[in-house]
């Protein structure tokens, strides 16, 4: 966040504190109100950008400001479209975040970008939580050309962007570029926040790789 908005928020907090003191409210209540206000003004806008925004430019600005954190470097690497940069960003995440679920998901992504389909499938099966467990297995089946199996797993996914993502992968494996574009557009439309950003540029990267 830029300095000027922070100054405005600080001034607002001071003015609000003075106003509450004039109302002769208990100190603990004033403290709680101020904390809630700061959370609303500082934290909620960032959370909205991360999870709910549909503005790709705004999301990119947020990622650029926070790219020292490996988790936000990865989507930018996907946007740049350089395979080695993407792999490097995933390896950085794996070295930084040791939570088992994070390790499971990003090791799976690493195998995907290394184009190691058998390892990708193996790691997809090791993901311990839904819906990503089923999503990545469906993805692996599509990559292997097992389209009926991929469709079967796709039917178990929650309504939203995931089924369309599998449709897009199946279409690309079938060399149906028109079907890929239709499915990927639907997928992106249903996603939001950083997930939308990541999908938009992932599909863009896939199409460029397909054209090579």
UniProtKB/TrEMBL annotation:
Alphabetical keyword list:
Membrane, Transmembrane, Transmembrane helix
Q: Which residues cross the membrane?
A: 7-23, 29-51
Transmembrane helix recorded as keyword: yes
- Record carries keyword Transmembrane helix: yes
Which named protein is this? Answer: Uncharacterized protein
Task: Please tell me the species this chain comes from.
Answer: Psychrobacillus psychrodurans
């Amino acid at each position: 966040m830029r300095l000027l908005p922070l100054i405005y928020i600080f001034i607002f907090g001071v003015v609000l504190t003075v106003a509450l003191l004039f109302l002769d409210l208990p100190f603990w209540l004033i403290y709680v109100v101020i904390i809630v206000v700061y959370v609303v003004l500082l934290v909620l806008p960032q959370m909205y950008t991360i999870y709910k925004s549909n503005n790709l430019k705004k999301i990119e600005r947020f990622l650029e400001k926070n790219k020292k954190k490996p988790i936000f470097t990865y989507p930018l690497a996907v946007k740049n479209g350089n395979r080695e940069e993407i792999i490097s960003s995933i390896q950085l995440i794996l070295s930084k975040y040791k939570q088992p679920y994070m390790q499971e998901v990003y090791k799976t992504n690493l195998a995907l970008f290394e184009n190691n389909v058998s390892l990708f499938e193996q790691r997809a099966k090791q993901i311990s939580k839904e819906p990503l467990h089923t999503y990545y297995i469906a993805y692996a089946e599509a990559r292997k050309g097992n389209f009926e199996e991929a469709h079967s797993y796709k039917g178990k996914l929650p309504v939203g962007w995931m089924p369309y993502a599998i449709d897009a992968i199946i279409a690309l494996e079938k060399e149906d570029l028109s079907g890929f574009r239709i499915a990927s557009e639907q997928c992106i439309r249903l996603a939001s926040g950083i997930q939308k950003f990541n999908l938009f540029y992932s599909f863009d990267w896939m199409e460029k790789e397909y054209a090579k």
